[in-house]
Amino acid sequence: MTGSSRLRPSSLASVWSRQNGFGMLRLLLAWAVMVSHTFPLGYRQPNPGTALTHGQADVGTLAVCGFFVLSGLLITRSVGRLPLGRFLWHRALRILPGLWCCLLVTALVAAPLLRLHAGHGLSDWWLHKGGPGTYLSASWPLAGELPGIRGVLTDVPYAGTINGSLWSLRYEVLMYLLLAILSISGVLRRARWTVAVLAFLCATVLPVLAAGHEWLRAPTYGLLPTVSFDLPVFGGMWLANLVPLLTCFLFGALAELYRDRLPVNGVAAAVAAAMLVGSLLGGGFVVVGLPAWAYLLIWTAMRMPPALQRVGSRHDYSYGLYIYAFITQQSLAALGVNRWGHLPYLALSTLCALGMAMLSWHLVEAPAMRLKSAGGGWRPFPAVGRLRPRTRA
After folding, report:
1. Of 26, 158, 249, 272, whose CB neighbour count within 10 A is largest?
2. Minimal CA–CA distance to 279: which of 85, 54, 47, 124?
3. Is residue 225 assigned to a domain?
4. How many folded domains does the chain comprise?
5. What are phi and psi of 253, to 5 degrees?
6. CA end-to-end span of the chain, whole Å?
């Protein structure tokens, strides 16, 4: 009897196929971030869901956490079948070319046009401290807090910040490096339980220690609010962001590592939905709601109708939508589009950002991804070995 025939019939390993709903989910999550940002960027209002969840989460928080869950699952699958050097090369090609192009468009196209629209000149602005040059030099390595650009976006509801969504990318890259370390150390092959222990510590112990007796209502992004540390290249990392995002990434990684034992069925999904809603309304989202949210995303990807599963299978616009959404919404707010109301502002923002995402994919991201095989058999590090689900005899 083959290993695949001994898989549990309703496990993630048994229902996985090349055609799945991850592309559609990523696109929806990127758009959910845009929906959430419509309120503060256009109207100085809190992100939707903040009051309902007692400050634990909001639509944008759920979306970003969802990104890290899916990333943890898919990247763990990738690191299990590639040599380490090629794995890092693939990740760099997926993240950096699109990001660097977005930074150039922001600094050299959007920012000067917004400055001219505000009635300011450009002659002494390009190389001035705080101008486009400073923005590019500070932003391209994903180090530290993303700066604004002098004299740009000063009269919008969310003044000063030109592309706030990019903050999460350096945490994403840090997760890739952590996964690479777990791979070359053999943890993913021989001690996958270590990942479960790390996830447990992040999801329970650290929130309890940070928030004391109020831990049940601790906001996801409010944990350890004053604790940060510096990392080479990455700059300052806030534990308030790192802990929940690492938790989500590890949940996704665990789904891949234990895919032969993870059930994918409607009963488990219903239980997870009840846990998620209950924690959002009553408290304990960090401990109870996050794993439930992670499971629901994976279940949805596997059970999504076939027509929707084709979305993103050839053209993945989700990353471009995410990195261009914030600057698009800020630019439209500077032009006064937000005065038309929430829905017109969101609709036009979506169309413009999606257009930029399509250009980014076809002109930058897809051509960069065609370089994945550059170097032929180049293997600066040994392969970590294909991660296979354990089966019972």
Report:
1. 249
2. 54
3. yes
4. 1
5. -60, -40
6. 9
102: in domain: yes
Q: For strand 235-238 and strand 228-231, is the pairing parallel, antiparallel, or unpaired?
A: antiparallel
> Is residue 40 domain-resident?
yes
What domain range includes position 323? 9-369
H or E element at residue 352: helix 342-360
Q: CA torsion 30→31→34→35, rounded to 10°?
A: -140
Comparing CA positions, the residue from 327, 328, 35, 335 lying closest to residue 155 is 335
Encoded tokens for 115: 């400055």
pLDDT digits (tens, 9 = 90+) for 189-231: 888 899 999 998 888 766 665 454 344 444 544 444 556 666 6
Are 384 and 187 a contacting pair, CB within 8 Å? no
List the one residue out of 286, 267, 142 whose CA is nearest residue 209: 286
User: Of 318, 317, 353, whose CA–CA distance to 66 is shortest?
Assistant: 318
Give the pair of three-digit tokens for residue 19.
Answer: 């055609």
| Residue 57's pLDDT band (cuts 50, 70, 90) | confident
Q: Domain for residue 381, yes or no? A: no
pLDDT-based confidence at residue 187 (cuts at 50, 70, 90)? confident
In the 8-state DSSP scheme, what is residue 249?
A: H
Q: For position 343, what pLDDT does the model report?
A: 96
Per the CB < 8 A criterion, the answer to whether 299 and 139 are in contact is no
Per-residue tokens: 78: 């990738």
Count how many residues are written for the chain.
393
The DSSP code sequence of 275-304 is HHHHHHHHS-IIIIIHHHHHHHHHHHHHHS
